[in-house]
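Re: beginner question about structure tokens

> Can someone show what the tokenized structure looks like for a real chain? I only ever see the sequence side.

Sure, here's an example I had lying around. Input first:
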Amino acid sequence: MAIDLEARALAVRERAAGYAAELAATARGETTLACERAVLRLMGVTGLDRSGRPLAVEVVDRLAALGPARLGGGIGLPFAAAAREYDLEPTALALDIAAGNIDLALEAELLSEPARRRDAETTLADWMAAAWERFDANRTARAELEDVIGDMPGPMLGIDLPLSAAGAAADSAADAIAAGADLVRVRVPFDRELRRRLGDEPDPEDPTDDPELAPAGSQRGLAVLRAAVDEAAAERGAYVRLATQSVGLASPDQAVVAAFERVDLVFADPLETVVEFGIEPARAVADHCFAARLMARAGVDLAVGPGPLAMAPEVARGEPLEVADRIGRSLALQAIGVELSRAAGVADGRLLLGALAGGDLGAPLAFVPGLVEVGLRRLLYPGFRLLFVEPEDSDADPAWPLALPTWLAGADDAVVAIRRPATSGIGAARHEIRQAVAAAAAMTQARIVGHLTGDAAVLAERSLIVAGDTLRDLADDGWERLLLSPAALARRSDPSGGWIGGAGRVARREGPDIFGAPEAIR
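And the corresponding structure tokens:
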């Protein structure tokens, strides 16, 4: 009996889309600490307070301390009312609030007066218009720069930059670009809210005015890095992408920074944070949906990972995770992330999909699971760009570059690969990626390469059944039984239901929509 993988894949995608639509509708009615911090950034609040702590964090924490109703009303209007009252610019006002010199509760009370509310709404609308102008200017600058210096066709090779200060990261980026890197990715340090929830209260940051000494993943650091990347790209004669990756409770903040500092690609997987840290799923979804709306408005590309390894049931039973379970669950969780992003307005052409969920690719016959993973993603989301990330210990996994032509054959995919060679090996790594794509294209043109058959088709069918069952169980039974990893169980410290970050999510009260104009820029 023939296996109808297309029909099963369609059913999984439709179930994921329906479930994500319900999650997104709930998220639209909520706000979080991170969403309100992002609003402050949109209004122009940057930098540190007088104690060396992130200014946006301190101001929103003061609002949240007034209770869920105040946080649910949002930071925008009371902050705008205070700006009118004291005739202060956003950052100066934020410094006074963080120092305790201005009470947001009093400013919120002023909004009950119609004239003051109208004035606050006008000020907030002006700030948002300025933010969207900055979004649009950077999107235009990106397109113009690509036109001037050109864009390198073919697959892109991405390189991870070391965690360092911005100046050192800029030097590393310039060396990598000169050696052939098409994309450089910087990891954003854990946000302060997550570190607090994990019991790791960070020390105050050094409030130095030198941006080259700022963390590379901070807003000031990314400005330094963007300038260095553009300069190196101009010398090379091809546009180079800048990417960020963060895991935690700050995806809305990172979306604003990406738009303001012309970051091209953001790596953001809402469910990775749930599995890795035990962050409350509803909080992760609310943050991701808000961040995705911002990225859609800015025209920033979004990379959704291949789906985390959800293995709590097997761990509880002391059993290994079967290959079909690993593939199917990861596929289901990735599909939720993709559909949440699409529901928020991110265009399909701006989404990249992690192609492989991990596992021992160097094991005998491991080519087949890789074929199944890539093949199923093509079935669910045909035409989407695929993202391949080399395992961290590439020396222990020599099969990875050799397997690429096999995984890529059979479709005309745009490919991005993140590799981890030393600078001296970047040229060779780039050559390997391009040769792999060329070999896959040659196989596709010269042979009949396409549908999965035999053992691969059987594994694909079993994986799709698992994916469908996973989506059904999540909708019916909730998240906790399936998603909490041992690491997340050990780290849970938030008193609100055991999940991290749940206390920072509240129902949104009626107020102005900061997005105003249509958000999606396609």
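Each token stands for a local structural state, so reading them left to right follows the chain. The longest strand covers residues 156-160.
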